[in-house]
Amino acid sequence: MSDTLAPEPTSASSPDPDPVSEAAGRKAGKRDVILDPAEPGTSPILVKGPLSRRYLTWYTILTIAISAVWGAVLGIMLPNHVQLLEFGQWFTGANAGVDLQKLTLLQQAVDAGTTTATGAQAHQLDLLTGFNAARAQSLAIITSIGVVLTMLVQPVVGVLADRTRSRWGRRAPWILFGSLIGSLLLVLMRFAPTLAVLAIVYMVAQAAINAAVGPLATTVADRMPVNRRGTASALGGFGNFFGGLLGGLAAGSLFAVLGLDIYFIVAAFVAFAGVMFVLFARDRSSKNLLVPKMNWKSFFIGFTIALRSRNFRWVWVARILLSFGYTVSTALSLYMLQSYIRPALSQVQATQLAPLLTLVGVPITIIALFIAGKLSDKLGKRRIFVIVASVLMALSMLIPIVSPTILGLFLQAIVGGIAFGIYLPVDQALFIDVLPDEKAAGRDLGVAGLGSNLGQALGPILAGAVVATTGGYVGVWIAACVLVILAAVAIFPLKGIK
Description:
Blueprint: H1 19-28, E1 33-35, E2 45-48, H2 50-90, H3 100-112, H4 119-162, H5 172-189, H6 195-223, H7 226-258, H8 262-280, H9 296-302, H10 310-330, H11 333-339, H12 347-379, H13 383-396, H14 399-402, H15 406-433, H16 441-470, H17 474-489
Antiparallel strand pairs: 1-2
Helix pairs in contact: 2-4, 2-6, 2-7, 2-8, 3-4, 4-6, 4-16, 5-6, 5-8, 7-12, 10-16, 10-17, 11-12, 12-15, 13-15, 13-17
GO cellular component, one term: plasma membrane
Organism: Leifsonia poae
Protein name: Major facilitator superfamily (MFS) profile domain-containing protein
């Protein structure tokens, strides 16, 4: 890869191999319809035929693989890994073999006044209080720093990928090396001996894999005709949804058998999918790409333009608050199943149940998503849908406070799923409505996405701080409820928007 001002000279007698053209001429023949790119070094448009289908197939598979990593690692592996490391620090010597589930049930019985702890038990309960606070804070910090680094990496990678010149095209090097390096780091996570090492390796692994995500998504705009981008995006959305569920459910069901060795499986999946995408959905060479001089100052200043618009700024604040509140409520789900609900679950039971909390709300979320999107278009209104969704989500946060049980968490997931289904399509449409410059929609919608990332980064930090300060999880739900209500309030100042 290089970043120079002019394309490399080419020779008519020894041109660079063109994978797409060669494949089309040798195998696909007249079945492929391909439009040559308007600019040298960019991708051809795959209108239809075997090459187009092959691209869509591997695009979907790689999207599933990457989403499976986050479903497995963020939802299951990382919380369990942090818990195991923290347990080894807090419960040592004679207490090393303590059963966390039994100790938590004892704590609940003491809190209910149905039993009295002995001296030894009281000491163990003190250790349990410190352990609960420590694991929540550690998981929050590790999760948040990974999101923050991704926020910094993705915009820069996007610019560099636009300017990359290689035999394999502009995006392929980033997709390939991001997948492979990320996979290698996931393997190294398995052997992290301390929380500090785990945090560093996970942070870099997340950044590496996300360095592949942006260029992968951009291949849709590069290679698909306008009338098929919706189909390709739908396949990507399916991949994100299905991959997250697949990773969470697989890791949850296999953790009792494989433990932390599940890292190997998810790493192999994303490495395999990354390599296969580059090999079987090959792009044309970008060695003759014309690369203009880069002005980094203008690039970074450009991200502030949209925030100078009053309407855009309020919608952005609302998204941060809702993402913030939603992430506060979900960041410590595994630990809530072990320490908050009554009766408390064991680590294995909680690990198996955690993915189901996500799964139970999915069907109703999809239904709400389509209904809200169409109804919003039909009525020509956005604000009321975002406000209703925010209020409904806030109300869902009260359910686990009233009913700290498995049933309460499932009811919250269902009601919250309805709210999220209403919010997602209308919020995105609202952002498009308040764009200050439609010609810069890509840049400004990227800023909108940073709002989600910022909320997701702040959520775990607040959740961990609440548990560390209060020693329990009720405050987590209260904080989440307040933040989401504030998200609804932030929509009211909009002007000229229905």
